[in-house]
From TrEMBL:
Source organism of this protein record: Microlunatus elymi
Superkingdom assignment: Bacteria
Any coiled-coil regions, as ranges: none
Keywords assigned by UniProt, alphabetized: Repeat
Name this polypeptide is given: SIS domain-containing protein
Amino acid sequence: MSAEIGEQPAALEATLAGLLPMRPRIAQLAGGRKRVLLVARGSSDNAAIYGRYLAELHAGISASLAAPSVATLYDARVDLSDTLAICVSQSGSTTEIVETLEWTRRCGAITIAITNVEDSPLASAADLALITRAGIERAVPATKSYTTQVAALAVAMDALATSAGKKGLLDKEFSQIGDHARAMLATPAETLDAMAGALAEVDEVLTSGRGIAFGTTLETALKLEETCLRPVRGLSYADLKHGPIAIVDHELLTVLVAGPSGPTVPGLTELAGTVREKHSMVLGIGGDEEFRSACDLAVPGPDASEILAPLTLIIPAQLIVERLAHKLGLNPDVPRGLRKVTQTD
């Protein structure tokens, strides 16, 4: 896991180099489609949450996350003739995701696969496959496959923005992603160790965020759960205020994840103060200086725009989780009860 975290700058650069030239083809394929349906599970589902925000905020196209059981268990009849279905799977071999893609086509959708395996069933079944260049990922927890999926979704949504007549992202911003990843890998080890040490002292963890970085919040929670066997609840801070904040006390540690700027940062800064008043220790990832000052321990995120920060914002969390696993005497490469490819019905 540690080695694969370190491979992310090269993996992101290779993925963007391969996929950015495909934007005209993506735009042509999606021409006239008014909705985006995102299909995924696990870490890929957290990447898809980012894709949903980007579709609506950047491309101006309505987007939603699919419930695959509607296809695989109920075989519902749904009119998707105005829909672009984007199905995301690291292996491209999860039967449920492949079957859901095939169901969307039967319902009239145009389909795009995002996968790390070029000759996978998912890539073969789609109208167009966007192949990430993460390389073989041997550790069970997704690290470089996750960030390259987020990059692929950014490329796809930029193509949709262009086809909708909106301004696409500047290529200059994409060209800086590798450097942003390297900067995240250079996060001071002593701060990461201190944050991992704080997490090792508690049994209850809450993660919270909102907006474009919310998928990163949920991916942070998932990594803590699967790699460190910590029960973690990931919530939007809006949902947190609707009742669950009652559970926050000195026995619970709060991890807040924020983009570098944007309308969600003030609310997360306020939330940091609120949970500290309830005697919960607060760890912060990203945000601005005011946000980080409101936390007990914090690390900066990438010096990127809010819209592209999620491509690398997860890296400090990955580094913390890998350290925490070792502190707990766990093997981060092979979490208990998990396999690289998970099959669901």
